[in-house]
């Protein structure tokens, strides 16, 4: 039986290069591609038995490590390998501490990528320079706790959360997700409860702890419900 690999990156040329690198080393792999967090969530719903996820850390809408944290809760058995051009030891350790099985730098050559993917499919952990998480993990207790709470969000709640981080009003979220405003409010209540936030602004500020770039989140309108 072929193994299913989901590649999620917003750059089509890099997706093609990554697919080629994996295919050259793993001849029994079939590929599914997505270019956004929305596409990622849809793909996982359509392919629940995906064997490996290659996730671009800087994917728009992923909000740093937020998407990774969510996936570890919604798909705990799915091996996730983070792919990123930001490959400093701190970022690598953070990704591994938050549940990634591996980390591959975008500067790696095709041969190295192929070998790393084979290792991951065999259950091994891979990372640039062999970086590992240790007792002095760079993901502090508060960050790990937040990641655990983020993992409790459902796929639809994470979609709503992502739009909240973009500063969208309830009516705009309802329109884009094709749901009612009442449903949005119900999701928002659940999101605040699960994240341990008193209000929407606090939820967005909490998400900032999992970002690589704090400016990725848009300020909320003052009159937001």
Written overview of the protein:
The structure is a single chain. The protein has 225 residues and is α/β, with parallel strands linked by helices. The protein is built from ten helices and five strands; from the N terminus they run βαβαβαβαβαααααα. It has helices spanning 12-25, 37-46, 66-74, 89-97, 110-121, 141-150, 155-165, 170-177, 181-195, 200-207, and strands spanning 3-8, 29-34, 52-56, 80-84, 102-105. The protein has a five-stranded parallel sheet with strand order 2-1-3-4-5, with helices on both faces. Helix 1 crosses helix 5 (110-121), helix 3 (66-74) crosses helix 6 (141-150) and helix 8 packs across helix 9. The radius of gyration is 18 Å and the shape is globular. 37% of the residues are buried.
Kindly state the percentage of residues in helix.
Answer: 40-55%
Quaternary organisation: single chain
How large, in whole angstroms, is the Cα Rg?
Answer: 18 Å
Q: Beta-sheet strand percentage?
A: 5-15%
| First-last Cα distance | 50 Å
Q: Please provide the count of β strands.
A: 5
Mean pLDDT: 89
List keywords for this structure.
alpha/beta, five-stranded parallel β-sheet, globular
Blueprint (SSEs and pairs):
Blueprint: E1 3-8, H1 12-25, E2 29-34, H2 37-46, E3 52-56, H3 66-74, E4 80-84, H4 89-97, E5 102-105, H5 110-121, H6 141-150, H7 155-165, H8 170-177, H9 181-195, H10 200-207
Parallel strand pairs: 1-2, 1-3, 3-4, 4-5
């Amino acid at each position: 039986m072929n193994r299913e690999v989901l590649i999620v990156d917003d750059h089509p040329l890099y997706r093609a290069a990554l697919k080629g690198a994996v295919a050259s080393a793993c001849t029994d792999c079939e590929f599914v591609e997505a270019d956004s967090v929305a596409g990622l969530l849809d793909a996982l719903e359509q392919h629940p038995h995906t064997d490996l996820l290659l996730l671009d850390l800087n994917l728009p809408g992923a909000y740093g490590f937020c998407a990774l944290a969510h996936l570890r809760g919604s798909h705990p058995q799915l091996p996730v390998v983070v792919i990123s051009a930001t490959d400093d030891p701190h970022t690598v350790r953070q990704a591994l501490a938050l549940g990634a099985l591996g980390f591959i730098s975008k500067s790696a050559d095709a041969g190295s990528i192929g070998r790393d993917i084979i290792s991951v499919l065999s259950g091994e952990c891979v990372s640039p320079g062999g970086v590992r998480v240790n007792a002095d993990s760079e993901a502090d207790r508060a960050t790990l706790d937040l990641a655990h709470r983020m993992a409790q969000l459902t796929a639809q709640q994470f979609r709503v959360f992502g739009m909240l981080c973009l500063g969208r009003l309830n009516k705009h979220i309802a329109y884009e997700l094709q749901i009612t405003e009442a449903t949005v409010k119900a999701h928002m209540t659940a999101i605040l409860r699960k994240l341990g936030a008193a209000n929407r602004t606090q939820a967005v500020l909490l998400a900032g702890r999992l970002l690589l770039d704090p400016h990725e989140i848009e300020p909320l309108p003052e009159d937001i419900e």
